[in-house]
What does this fold into?
Amino acid sequence: ESHRDDSIILTDTVNSILPLNFKEPLLIGQDSVHLGACGLVSQSDPGSDSEGRKFSKKQQKRRPSMETGEDGEDRPREHPFIVTEPGELARGKKNGLDYLFDLYEQCGRLLQEVQRISKERGEKCPTKVTNQVFRHAKHNGCGYINKPKMRHYVHCYALHCLDTEQSNNLRRLYKERGENVGAWRQACYHPLVAMARENDWDIEGLFTRNEKLRIWYVPTKLRQLCHSEKSRDSE
Amino acid sequence: ESHRDDSIILTDTVNSILPLNFKEPLLIGQDSVHLGACGLVSQSDPGSDSEGRKFSKKQQKRRPSMETGEDGEDRPREHPFIVTEPGELARGKKNGLDYLFDLYEQCGRLLQEVQRISKERGEKCPTKVTNQVFRHAKHNGCGYINKPKMRHYVHCYALHCLDTEQSNNLRRLYKERGENVGAWRQACYHPLVAMARENDWDIEGLFTRNEKLRIWYVPTKLRQLCHSEKSRDSE
DNA sequence: AACCCGGGCGACCATCGGACGCTGGTGCC
DNA sequence: GGCACCAGCGTCCGATGGTCGCCCGGGTT
It folds into this structure.
């Protein structure tokens, strides 16, 4: 589309038809190393974040064998995360939490790349990890990074950034107890809520003030948790 | 529904020339309207002026397909803007540029209100003038504020904020020449591009650094203009 | 081999930022 | 009153942020 009304001098077109995808290796080990392990398996209620709302119906379709578009290859899904303590490599077909957190660092680098390119082209420059960044990741061979996953664990990464020691302790504790990832993930909320309380309930500010967290949206669930705790406090 | 022209809350003794609309639901922010002290008397509703028989129109355009429910009253469109010099009141069924700029200040106040409410509710808090703010405006009797209009003149307001004197001079010049609003609006781009050049082409930064501009998105057209001028420079 | 737990991530949805162009208000004659 | 001009803003659109739950990988029996 063009900007008709605004046709003014400088009709030089800002040609930005190109998809924002460059080839740039910013590979980080997408490990595969299976070591150490806690074969613990114990089921504990992950608490289900039924944060959702009403219903929705949908039908998923299995990808037909026929390749659509150029893409073609069917990427196998990533190995599930398990609770590992700091420095510990996951054993078997699992990924550890250090790897999870590294994914967030990768996204940060991907964002910087997107920002540099946007600036070069005079397009608007994202300050957060947006859809564009996930798209960029995919086009750059980082297919193992995707939005639902990254959003799912943001608050875990937040705890890691804001209080690494507490995060580490929590990991050790949950590993020891043989809790699953869901349980650990749920548990990450509470220390954050406590930090928010210490900070006048400004969870947004906690994120913004931290160099690495600044680029991540505050998860809805975390914000709501802070809000209801705050209300409870003031009663 | 009454119309525009109503009293404005004056700050101090300096009165306003602005035909502020009825019902200012917002707090009275001391926006420095910076109007030249033209000793105008505060304008009380002239009654005769803008109160024609505007409510006679009742017909709405119908979409062939369906009509959206909840039919509200048909609001007459606002009077067009004309190029006025600073402090000058538009005559006839027109609105002046001081009034235009005041609309931006009102939006700033509306945003503050939305922010306060969001915070109370623990919802995410907008930093920019978003759809939500326009919706809030409508629900608070500021039906004369709407997105297309506000976005259309953002860069004019930007010039006003960043270099009031240059903005004023441009207004005088274009008024003198008898140019229409469209021409004046186009002309506002150039001084901004020049300012961006002085600022390492960081138009985003110019906006962000200014207290009042920070809440407005940089218009695409302006960003593109800066980009192509920058490219031209470096050739 | 069979079972089933649990979590990865494809796909959906409300809403967003952004834009166009029709409608009709307005001044002029 | 009639006409021509032009700009207000209703309305559309691709893309975004956010989420849910299907599908199946993977450990256990």
Observations:
- Chain B touches chain A through 22 residues (CB under 8 Å).
- Chain B has nine helices and no strands.
- The longest helix of chain B spans residues 97-121.
